[in-house]
Amino acid sequence: MDKYDYVIIGSGASGAAVAEKISSDYKVLILEKGDYLPLNEAHKGYFRASSCKDFEEHGKIEILSGNGVGGTTLLAIGNGVRTQEKELKKLGIDIEKELDEVERDFEVSPIPENMLGDRTNLFIEKSKELGYKPKIMPKMIDFKKCKKCGKCNMGCQFQAKKTSLHYIENAISKGSELKTNFEALKINKRNKYFEVQGMEKGNLINIPAKNVILSAGALDTPKVLNNSGIMTPKKLFVDIFVTIGGKSNQSFKDEINMAAYIPFNDFLISPYYSERIIKMLSEKKIESKRDNIIGLMIKIKDDSFGYVDKNFIEKYCTGKDVQKISNGVAIASRILKKLGVDMIVSTEAIGAHPGGTAPIGTTVDNQFKTKMGFYVCDASILPESPGAPPILSLMALGKKLGENILNST
Ligand SMILES: Cc1cc2nc3c(=O)[nH]c(=O)nc-3n(C[C@H](O)[C@H](O)[C@H](O)COP(=O)(O)OP(=O)(O)OC[C@H]3O[C@@H](n4cnc5c(N)ncnc54)[C@H](O)[C@@H]3O)c2cc1C
Questions:
Q1: Which end of the chain has less Cβ packing within 10 Å, N or C?
Q2: Can you list the residues of the chain whose pLDDT is less than 50?
Q3: Which domains does the chain have, with CATH numbers?
Q4: How far is the CA of 371 from the centre of ligand 1 (A)?
Q5: Rg for the chain (alpha carbons), in Å?
Q6: Residue 11 in contact with ligand 1 by CB distance below 6 A
Q7: pTM
Q8: Per-residue pLDDT tens for 25-70?
């Protein structure tokens, strides 16, 4: 088999961006564990930590991510904010130009006023009355196609949400190859080259490559690193969130989730529809339905404290995390009271932005290179929890690595 110049493991936010950048100049193979799912079936790619062994004994924080071509971006709800710019700059990585490029590629823009729903408008009005400063969320959504169904996290049946599939399609049109249902297990070094070992249809396969870019996401990248002989630190963060809410006496139509937000130092608050609120209310004998509940998400910058093992994910809330959540809950409940909610319930702790499992400065250098000489580029290299949607920055990191590779030849 002819050697590929670069084998990229994982086709998510960072992997797809780097593939798109280098595909005209190099022979590239993208390996993806999941299927090539249409956007309206993206929910089939959900991975939940609660399906891991002994979930209850390892912290019981539900962690969400996705498998499939395009990675977890297919399940994202389109939020497109800049995060981690300053933190990365301190490490010698400037992603400003790349962020500009990503914003142009996906036409990221705040939701137009006429697309804001009644819940969001009420949230904005009442939180302003309390002296807070809500902002409109920038989104990676084509608003001409969006029907405000509020189900972005299931995929998108109207093809309005913009995802990493855009970069993957471009990379393929420039000559990259894509292999789906291939799970990379290990990277071996063979003299000055590499070999990716993985499973395809039950068979163990070795793929030779001049170099490898590991972009399997923060829950899988550490497993591949550990199998390859690179031990990773216990620094998993997940941007823990809870959604608190209750029944309102008004009737609302469906609307875009997280359409506005209030940023604080360690957390953000944003209107979020959660089916779990209906379940929690019914446990208290309060009947509610989709159109009469209001929810607010409190998403924190959590401590880098947790890790991924072969069969489980260990992640607890630290004392500091609990403090941040309760600070957020105190403010969000004031807003909910103003919105007319009497009985407030809370979901359990969830995390949808896993990262930090192979951080810059520990596992990789600021060129994203490991001591074995291959690259890692995904949320695992982030130095700390952003406490905010990270896709734009992860795509920018992918572009940055691509440019470094192009400039090094
Ligand atoms: C429900 C939900 C909503 C979200 N909404 C937003 C949002 O609105 N805005 C935002 O900025 N962020 C959002 N996020 C977070 C965001 O999607 C992730 O932080 C981001 O996609 C992570 O990028 P990544 O490149 O690290 O990994 P991923 O995008 O997860 O990509 C990793 C890829 O690698 C593949 N893979 C894994 N292991 C292997 C292996 N061994 N071999 C081959 N392939 C492998 C996976 O199948 C996957 O395709 C959301 C997350 C969830 C769960």
A1: N
A2: none
A3: 4-48+63-107+156-235+354-407 (3.50.50.60), 112-150+237-351 (3.30.560.10)
A4: 25
A5: 21
A6: yes
A7: 0.97
A8: 999 999 999 999 999 999 999 999 989 988 999 999 999 999 999 9
